[in-house]
Automatic annotation (TrEMBL):
Entry-linked Gene3D superfamilies: SIR2/SIRT2 'Small Domain, TPP-binding domain
Binding positions (Zn(2+)): 122, 125, 138, 140
Name of protein: protein acetyllysine N-acetyltransferase
Classification of source organism: Bacteria, Thermotogati, Thermotogota, Thermotogae, Thermotogales
Keywords: Metal-binding, NAD, Transferase, Zinc
UniProt-listed PANTHER family: NAD-DEPENDENT PROTEIN DEACYLASE (PTHR11085:SF4), NAD-DEPENDENT PROTEIN DEACYLASE SIRTUIN-5, MITOCHONDRIAL-RELATED (PTHR11085)
Location of the Deacetylase sirtuin-type domain: 1-235
Protein EC: 2.3.1.286
UniProt-annotated catalytic positions: 114 (proton acceptor)
Pfam families: SIR2
Keyword Ribosomal protein part of the UniProt annotation: no
Keyword Metal-binding on entry: yes
Length: 235
């Protein structure tokens, strides 16, 4: 399977969909795992109404958990994907993650379905800010929110994601358990468009039967193995 995946990556024209699994080795907690954030704070923490009604509870969470994201460094998998993009193998990355690690790694074409936790804006005047450690009330009196997608909100860049898949020949899913829609619909869409679908994930996903190539393994270790066949990419 790995051999086949290497062959497919060499062919290029690839779009990658990443989930929490790519960032666990960077120390980002997986929201849906047993020791993840939902276990700790409950799913209501990303409920928009809860946010507006309890901003101080939400920001206790932000001040405690977000710095881990800000301090996190991209791991080998993020960096290798950025290099593959730079060398023309990858057309773009669609990510479910809000941790900014693809940009930190140097990727350019990144579609952040769930937003980005390093950006904030005022819900009243729209003014953007880098962080909220000086307070979460804007000069205008409005409540400042993170630029991330809450549960009741629509994911972003869905049309752009479909277009990216249309314009590529292969979709590689990396570290997503494919349990959250509509992101989990993207691999199904890719198959309907007769694209090659590869999944690299530690555990099984509900869409494994759709995949042409499936690798159940550690993400970073898998990309370290793949990188050995791309000496021109890894300097
Ligand atoms: Zn404002």
């Amino acid at each position: 399977m790995l051999k086949e995946l290497i062959r497919i990556i060499k062919n290029g024209n690839i779009v990658v969909l990443t989930g929490a699994g790519i960032s666990t080795k960077s120390g980002i907690p997986d929201f849906r795992s047993k020791d993840g954030l939902y276990q700790k704070y409950g799913e209501k923490i990303f409920d928009l109404q809860f946010f507006f009604e309890n901003p101080s509870v939400f920001y206790d969470f932000v001040y405690k958990e977000f710095p881990k994201m800000y301090d996190a460094k991209p791991n080998f998998a993020h960096i290798f994907l950025a290099k593959l993009e730079k060398n023309g193998y990858i057309n773009g990355i669609i990510t479910q993650n809000i941790d900014n690690l693809h940009y930190k790694a140097g990727s350019k074409n990144v579609l952040e379905l769930h937003g980005n936790a390093t950006r904030f804006y005022c819900t009243k005047c729209g003014k953007q800010s880098k962080n909220t450690f000086d307070g979460y009330i804007c000069e205008c009196g409005g409540l400042i929110r993170p630029d991330i997608v809450f549960f009741s909100e629509s994911v972003r860049y869905l049309e752009e994601s479909y277009t990216l898949i249309d314009n590529s020949s292969t979709l590689i899913v990396v570290g997503s358990s494919l349990q959250v829609y509509p992101a989990a619909y993207l691999p199904i869409y890719a198959k309907k468009q007769n694209k090659t679908l590869a999944i690299i994930n530690k555990g099984k996903t509900p869409l494994d039967d759709y995949a042409d190539i499936i690798i159940y393994d550690d993400i970073v270790e898998t990309f370290e193995k793949i990188a050995k066949h791309f000496e021109e990419v890894v300097d």
